[in-house]
DNA sequence: TAAGTAATTTACCGGATGGTAAATTCGGCG
DNA sequence: CGCCGAATTTACCATCCGGTAAATTACTTA
C-alpha cells in the first residue's frame, strides 16, 4: 500500500449502517437549524463523510429531509394517539400527552423541530408530508381543545383555532426548553409541566378592563 | 430626452423618505423570514430599488437589521414597561401587558419577530442588541412569573426559568396567530386571550399519575 | 445654461451552497 | 493473483447572496 494519493474508496462501513448514521446526523442538524439553515456539508462533516455521499444515498436535500421526517412523524403520531386513548378528554389528558411526547423524543429531542419546521420550501413534497403529520396530530388535539372551550361556553370557531395553535406551540416551547436542559428526564419534565400548569391557573379568573 | 440607455440616476425620492421606506420593508421581511432567511434583494425589490442602495443607506445587512431593531425594541419595551405599572403584579397584569403589546404592534405586527429572531449571527452586534432588549423585557416579566410561582409554593429556580420561557413564547405564538388573522383588532385579540385563559384554567388542578 | 450635488444603477467579485459526472480505492470471491 | 462490485471521493458547475467601486442620471442653483 504505497501512500494512496486519493482518499476515495470504501471505508468498510456497510450501506445500511451508513444510512442510519446519516439519518441520525441529518435529523439533529435539521432539527437544530431548520431545513433552510441546515447545510449538507455540515451533516456530511458530522458523519465524517462527503456531501456527495448524502446525495448518493438519499438524493436531494428535500429527499433527505423527508427520509428524516417519516420515522419521526410516525413515532410522534403513534405516541400521541395512544396517549389520548379511546375515550374522550379527561382532566389529565394534556399531561399524559406531554409525557408521551417527551418519552418518544428522548434520545433525539430536536427531532420535534423536524416535524414543526417552518422553513420548508413551500409547495414541495417535504412541506406537504410534514403538514400531513401535523394535521393528524392536530386533529387529535382538536378534540381536547374543543372540549375545553365548550366547558367555558365559547362557541367562536376562531377561539378554537387559536387554542389549538397555542397548545401546539406550547409543546414546541416546552421541548425547546428541554433541549436546553439535557439533564432533565422525561418524567421530570412532565412533573415540571404539572407544576407550571397549576401556577398558570392562578392568573385565570380575570377579564379585561 | 432621448431614450436613457441606463436607468441609473435619482428618482426624486428624498433621502429621509427612502430611509423610511427601506426600514419598513426590511422590518417586514426580517420579521417574516428571520435575519438568515431574509434577502437584501427581496427587501430592495419590495421598495422598488436596487440592493446596492440598501448598502449605501445602511451599510451591512446586520447594520440594516439593527436599524430595524432599535425602534421596534424601544417601542415594545416602553409599552411593556408602562403596562406593568409601578405596583407589583396584579391579577390582570398579564392581559394588560398583552394588550399593550398588541397595540404597540398594530400597523406592523411582524416587527415582534425582529426582536425575537433566532437566526442572528452569534457574536455579532445584532444578536447582542436584540438580547439586551429581550433581557430588559424578560426582567419585567420575571417579576410577574416569580409571583405566580411563589403563590403556588414552588421554589425551584428551574421552574421559574421555564415559566418565564413559556410566557415569552406564548406571546410570540399569539402574535404569530394574529399575523395570520389580519382582520383582528388589538382589542379583539386581548379579549380572545382572556377567553383562552379562562378555558385553559379548566385543565389545571390535576397532578401527574 | 452650465456646474455641482444628490440619488440611483451597472457591473463586478468572492464565498457558500445544492447538485452531478467521473474517477478511485477497498473488500471479497473465483 | 486478478477481477468485480460496493463504497467513497475528486473535481466540477450553476446559482444565489452579501458586498464594493465606478458610472449614470436627475434635481437644484447660480
From TrEMBL, chains A, B:
Residues 16-76 form the HTH tetR-type domain. PROSITE patterns: HTH_TETR_1, HTH_TETR_2. Keywords: DNA-binding. It holds the Pfam family TetR_N. Residues 39-58 bind DNA. This is TetR family transcriptional regulator. It comes from Streptomyces bambusae.
Amino acid at each position: 500500500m504505497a501512500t494512496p494519493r486519493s482518499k476515495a474508496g470504501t471505508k468498510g462501513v456497510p450501506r445500511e449502517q451508513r444510512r442510519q448514521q446519516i439519518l441520525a446526523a441529518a435529523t439533529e442538524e435539521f432539527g437544530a437549524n431548520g431545513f433552510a439553515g441546515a447545510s449538507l456539508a455540515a451533516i456530511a462533516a458530522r458523519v465524517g463523510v462527503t456531501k456527495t455521499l448524502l446525495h448518493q444515498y438519499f438524493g436531494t436535500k428535500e429527499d433527505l429531509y423527508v427520509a428524516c421526517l417519516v420515522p419521526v412523524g410516525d413515532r410522534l403520531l403513534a405516541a400521541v394517539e395512544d396517549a389520548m386513548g379511546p375515550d374522550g378528554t379527561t382532566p389529565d389528558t394534556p399531561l399524559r400527552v406531554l409525557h408521551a411526547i417527551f418519552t418518544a423524543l428522548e434520545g433525539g429531542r430536536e427531532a420535534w423541530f423536524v416535524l414543526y419546521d417552518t422553513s420548508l420550501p413551500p409547495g414541495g413534497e417535504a412541506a406537504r408530508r410534514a403538514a400531513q403529520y401535523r394535521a393528524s396530530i392536530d386533529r387529535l388535539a382538536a378534540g381536547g381543545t374543543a372540549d375545553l372551550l365548550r366547558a367555558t361556553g365559547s362557541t367562536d370557531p376562531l377561539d378554537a383555532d387559536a387554542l389549538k395553535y397555542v397548545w401546539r406551540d406550547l409543546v414546541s416551547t416546552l421541548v425547546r426548553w428541554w433541549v436546553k436542559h439535557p439533564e432533565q428526564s422525561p418524567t421530570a419534565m412532565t412533573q415540571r409541566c404539572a407544576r407550571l400548569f397549576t401556577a398558570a391557573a392562578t392568573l385565570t379568573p380575570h377579564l379585561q378592563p
